[in-house]
Design goal:
The protein has nine helices and 17 strands. By secondary structure, it is an alpha+beta fold. The chain is flat and about 75 Å long. Strand 2 and strand 3 form a beta hairpin. The strands form five sheets. Strands 1, 4, 9, 10, 11, 14, 15, 16 and 17 form a nine-stranded antiparallel sheet that branches.
Length: about 325
């Protein structure tokens, strides 16, 4: 049997679960701002954590990058974006006013035009922005025009993720780094000096810290509800876009801070029936990974023995497994 066809724009009508494996080498997969941006860690077990929000950010970035932020795959939660402005675009496109009676129409328009709204859901009940005429007049000025609440309601997305957790405890390492060029002459505390050519130089460089882990293998679970897919009009084509984004999650999101990150495994479990044919936790437990506390590569986990359903086999009665990575 061939893999599910996710090319058609028909509403998703089956339940799915997802298991995603990814690793990081000499990098920081998800810094915690409340802990000097060190890698997130479970304080009780020492296992590394990556939030669902961080994974969704990478999916949004991939879809926006590859679909040019155009309808029907525009992105509502853009980096440094203003959500109220996105909500205002619904009323502008429909030619209606935010009078409290048009929320349903605005919500439907947002689901139809924004991939992340119909996939993950969104709270679009808050956020004031200037009315269109005043916004145009005040472009680039500090003065603000009259604002309105562009209420587009709330939607609960059919796709939900849990936190990614490392298979074994991680050790966060803080590397001391040096900065040889300063933004301002006095940033290092001393006064700037002038060399023989007359060029201004900083008195000294600066020291900094960079956090990371030597190696960590992480596992994340995902859940897809066909009932919420109907409400959001989440299609089979959208599911294909989501799988494409998960497959290429880090390939277009490189940074020196994150080190080398790679998707090592992606399993999709398709239930025969809309309601589902087995509890989700039993389905997800069919992928078993060994503990290798001192591992420095994914190959060491493979050598220790990863147990998982092979392509196009029944993980449980009525549940077919597919491996995409």
């Amino acid at each position: 049997m061939s893999r599910p066809d996710f090319s058609q724009p028909t509403v998703l009508d089956k339940r799915y679960e997802i298991v995603l494996l990814f690793d990081v080498r000499h990098g920081n997969p998800n810094g915690d701002p409340d802990a000097d941006n060190a890698p997130r860690v479970d304080p009780e077990t020492g296992h590394g954590l990556v939030t669902d929000v961080a994974i969704k950010r990478k999916i949004r970035n991939f879809v926006g990058l590859t679909r040019n932020f155009e309808s029907p795959n525009n992105i509502y939660v853009k980096e440094r974006g203003i959500l109220a402005n996105e909500q205002r675009s619904a009323y502008k496109a429909l030619g209606i006013e935010p009078d409290g009676k048009s929320v349903d129409a605005a919500r439907t328009w947002m689901c139809a035009n924004y991939f992340d709204v119909r996939t993950f859901g969104a709270v679009m009940t808050t956020g004031k922005a200037e009315i269109e005429a005043d916004a145009a007049i005040n472009t680039g000025k500090k003065a603000k025009g009259q604002t309105r609440l562009w209420n587009c309601g709330q939607v609960r997305g059919p796709v939900q993720f849990g936190f990614a957790t490392s298979i074994d405890p991680i050790t966060s390492i803080a590397h001391t780094i040096t900065r040889v060029a300063l933004t301002n002459p006095g940033d290092a505390g001393g006064e700037a000096v002038t060399d023989e050519s007359g060029e201004e130089k900083a008195a000294s460089g600066q020291m900094g810290r960079k956090h990371g882990v030597a190696y960590g293998l992480y596992r994340m679970h995902g859940f897809v509800s066909p009932f919420l897919a109907k409400q959001m009009q989440f299609t089979r084509h959208d599911m294909g876009t989501l799988l494409n984004a998960l497959t290429n999650l880090f390939d277009h999101d490189r940074s020196a801070t994150r080190g080398e990150m790679a998707v090592r495994g992606l399993w999709l479990f398709e239930h025969k029936d809309e309601l589902g044919n087995a509890p989700a936790h039993k389905v997800l437990d069919s992928v078993k990974l060994p503990s290798v506390p001192t591992a420095r590569s994914f190959a060491e986990y493979e050598a220790a023995g990863i147990t998982a359903p092979t392509e196009d086999t029944e993980a449980l009665p009525g549940v077919t497994a597919w491996r995409y990575v």
